[in-house]
Each structure stands twice: as C-alpha cells, then as structure tokens.
Amino acid sequence: MSVNSYLSSCASNLVLSSTEKDSISTSINTLETRLTSYFGYNIKEKFKFGSYTRGTILPRKVDDNSDVDYMVVFDNSENYKPQTFLNRLKKFAETKYSTSEIYQSSPTIVLELNHIKFELVPAYKSWGTYYIPDGKGGWMATYPNDFNNTLVEANNNNSYKIKPLVRLIKHWNVNVNYHDLTSYEIEKIISENMKYAYFTCTSYTDYAKKHSIY
Predict the structure, then answer these.
(1) Can you give the pTM of this predicted structure?
(2) pLDDT per residue as tens digits for the range 117-145
(3) 45-64 pLDDT, tens digit each
(4) One Pfam annotation, family name (predicted)?
(5) Three-state SS at 34
(6) Where are the domains of the chain?
(7) Which residues contact 103 (CB under 8 A, 6 or more apart)?
(8) Any idea what the Cα angle at residue 76 is, between residues 70 and 78, rounded to 5°?
C-alpha cells in the first residue's frame, strides 16, 4: 500500500458516521430545548461553533476528547464577571443532566454524555462583538464562526482535500500526545496557509509535504 493510499484510507475513517451524526444532532436539539426551558429570556442567543460546524471534528472512537463547542449568550447589562455565568451553566447542567459528568474546565462548563462531550461557553454580545471568558477571570472578544469561511475557501480551492488533511493531522496530534498546538490552532494554520489553490498538489501526500505545521 502506498503512503497516499494509506492516508486516504485513514482520512475516510476520520469522518463522523451517519449514526454518530444523528446522535449528536439529537443531543444538540435536546440541549437547546433544555436551555430555553431553564433560562427563558435570560439568554439572548445560543448556537454551536467550532470544529463540529466546520466538519473537522474527530469521531470519539479516535479521540476521547472530541467535543461540540456551544455558546450561550447572556444579557450582561450588570457587567458580571465570567464566573457568574459559568456557575449558572453548571447549575443548569446539574439540574437537567443529573446523571452525566459535569465540571468546569477553565473558561467552559464540560457536559459529558455517553456519545459526545459538550463544552458550554458563556458569552455576552456588545455592538456586534461576542465576549467569552479569557481563562483569567475576565472577558475577551471573539468572532466564533468567522473562521469557518476561511476553511471552506481553502477546502474548495484545493480539491476538497484540506478538511481531510486537517482531520489527519489532528488525529496524528492526538496519537503522539503533542499539545504545543491546540486543535483550533492546527485548523487555522493549515487553512490560512492553504487558502489559495496549490495546483501542483494532487494527493494527501503532496499536501502533507507542502505544508508542515511543526
């Protein structure tokens, strides 16, 4: 088997199965319903973001830490610190998911279900900008889904090989336990460096040689 055939085979195994997609979709719908029921008008928006929305999430069978990022946008007219909203999300999860594992992981509340993990991210919005916890007790600005277009453009311009390449490198990153770069940083570096078409690349091997992030 050639290196490219091996990479192609690996890439095909790093895509969510239809069953897994359906289970995650059902869990997202349930989460949204429970958030609305619990918080009512105290939340302004709620939506998924991150690798799940970009189609670069890894299946749980290859990455136990695979998760869905989910933003919950609160009214923060009282200028509360992030911990206030983290506490509210933790109480929500403990109330609505009493048999699940729930804990705070720095600026998020982690909700672990049998088939997927959610990272609940509190936020507020001011003048079109979202603010999320910075991990140090304060807020920082973010544009949660802006990067998605960059990845889509890079993928479209390069024969739809960039998303599979991202998943391959993320999988390798998990296997070697290399944590200098986060999953998001891996995606961002690859997408921005390969935004334009590389006409000399026709295989995963070509792209892997063309671009090294380490």
Answers:
(1) 0.90
(2) 999 999 999 999 999 999 999 999 999 98
(3) 999 999 999 999 999 999 98
(4) SMODS
(5) helix
(6) 3-15+147-210, 18-145
(7) 109, 110
(8) 155
Q: Compute the 3-state secondary structure of the chain and give helix, strand, coil in percent, each to the nearest 5.
A: 45, 20, 35
Fold of 18-145: Beta Polymerase; domain 2 (3.30.460)
The tokens of 7 are what?
A: 């990479």
Q: What is the pLDDT of residues 110-120, one digit of tens each?
A: 999 988 999 99
Contact by Cβ (8 Å): 62, 54: no
Q: How far apart are CA 7 and CA 60, in angstroms?
A: 19
